[in-house]
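Today's session is about reading a structure prediction critically. Students often jump straight to the picture, but the first step is always the sequence itself: look for stretches that repeat, for charged clusters, for runs of hydrophobic residues. Only then move on to the predicted structure, which in these notes is written as discrete structure tokens rather than atom positions. Here is the chain we will use throughout the hour.
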Amino acid sequence: MRGFTPNEFNARLSKAQILLQKSDLDCLLVTNEADFRYFTGFLTRFWESPTRPWYLLIFANYPPITIVPSIGVHLLKKTWSGEIRSWESPNVSDEGISLLQNILSEFLPKNGRVGLPSGPETLLRMPLVYFNQLRSSLDKLHFVSDCEIVKNLRLIKSDSEVKKISQAAAIAGRAFSRINEVAGSGVQLSKVFRDFQALCLDEGADWVSYLAGASEQGGYSDVISPAKDAPLVAGDVLMLDTGVVYDGYFCDYNRNFGVTEISNRLSSSWDRLQEATEAGKNMLIPGNTAKQVFFAMNAILQKGKNRKNSSGRLGHGLGMQLTEWPSFSKYDETILQEGMVVTLEPIIDIDDEKILVHEDNFLITANGPEQISPQCNPTIPVI
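Below is the predicted structure for this chain, in token form.
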């Protein structure tokens, strides 16, 4: 089904309110798209426009209130949003700040505590001048960290969320299976990118928010550059890394293809990547830490050598955003829990300039990891 049942949102709200009370917070102030949608189900591409701020207040002891530009009221009424208050926007003299001030004054004690998502991978999606105005007008209130309440809630996916991520992954898998329709020797990489996105849409994606990749001889130099107009040639390795979106949830995995041929050296590197992925997969057990997963993969990738090319991590969380907590890096001590959805993304040096990357998606369960992305070929396919 599209969207979620009211029970799903009731459960999210109830958990948030319990955590607010435990953390001695009176409310949460939510301003960014993913967090706003997590609590309301408000799904729209209109967030691409930076003109208007959007606010959501989750109270410890009262129903939530959304404060939004008038253009969003009609759609918001179709969601699980609680009470809605709005203003006519754009209005640079008052972008909902007076409404926000009045509501906080009405519902919070004079020395109340307002929690905001404040750690890594969070953002305050409102102009700083408005936030300073809010704080100065309510100088008795304390604007503090949300104690990672939102992060901890979003870390664990419900069964319904997992189904949406799995559907996104299946859509991308069907598109990857049709790669020969759009890629081959002589085809410009930029055209491959455009046509692959069309395949994803044809297979059921709502949109393709992310597509990165490369095509170079014997490997590639990086994995985030935009596509060039250069044609694919024999000996290239074509890599496509896609973030297909289905009903507001991402998949995030890649596939590699050899153009006409695959060298023995490349095949050896590919085997090492699969070995590293398996090592990481074996560590996706509740109670282990994110950095333990990193070290398990990195031990395979290094084989006694220092890796010159490093992305800083070898995978991450996944869900409403292309990348979420945790990061599989040597610094991240996040404890893995049942219900997390993650990617494993080992990267290996082929030489001083070229790399090879593999990525797959997994659900962490009490009985071990379950792969969400389709199984990749045991060898790099040739196109």
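Discussion point for the tutorial: The longest helix spans residues 264-282.
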